[in-house]
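Example record used in the benchmark description.
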Amino acid sequence: MKKLTLTLAVVFLTTVSIMPAHSTMKKLAQTGLQFLKVDMSARAAAMGGAYLLVGKGANAMLYNPAGLAKMTTSFDFFASQTQWLGDIKYNAVGLAKNMQNWGSVGISAIYCDYGTIEGTQVSSNAQGYIETGNVDVGAFTVGLSYAKELTNKFSVGGQVKWVSQHLGESMLNDSSTVKNRVSGVAYDFGTIFYPGFKSFRFGMSIRNFSSELKYQQEGFQLPLTFSIGIAMDVLDFLGEHNDALTIAIDALHPRDYSERLHFGAEYLFRNMFALRAGYKMNYDEENLTLGIGFNYKVGGVSLKIDYAYASFGVFSSVNRFSVGFAF
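Model output (structure tokens):
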């Protein structure tokens, strides 16, 4: 086990050290269904997306399903909305159940609301086109997750999900129409390992592994992403404490871009109020993130409200809201 710990630590440090050398290798336009890369959890987004080893409830399914194995409650539920660019909204929900020695299971779903898009068709009139009504566009994914602690130090988890996207209809030269719709199965897998040094842990995840999808003629892949990370409550060095200051670092190797780094921090006061901040490296527009969170217990039920702000360069900002409960 010590050899495994040393090996994984070396892999993480090596990945981080070589990232600047590859920062110019931007593998653009390599994947589709880009909504699968967007942070859906307000808590995770506020920490700069450095959530690989932080989530321990239903929202962990969207980052590292192994986090389900660390649930401390019987049920955990969350719902969130991301107010994305161009009036696009992403809505996500998740429900997880702790089955004790049998592990934990969960179900999650994401629905993409692309708003109203007016369809047009080439015409010989003065405008050069005619309106054909609203275009039916949208996307969604539904996933089933399972996670289990193999030992008190090592957890694994996986998710199988159905992904789908429809982008309206296209008219061919013979005036016939064809529906632009794709769907398929994708898989996520993750691990978390506690080597035994206070709350320090590290792990990895592989997200959006699938076969090629195709609309008409050109095929494309999903945004496959391999991530490794480390996290720790640094207040552990002070001995017993009622608060927590979690620091997390994730290194990402995406299929459609060069390597990236996510940094995140969360200060939790008396398990009731949280201040969060994060930073994303090697993004064209995204960088600084901030957020707050509230936990309040009522009759054995823990209520959670989270908000995240993300700077988006010339596109202003993105806001996220999450609510949830656990018992």
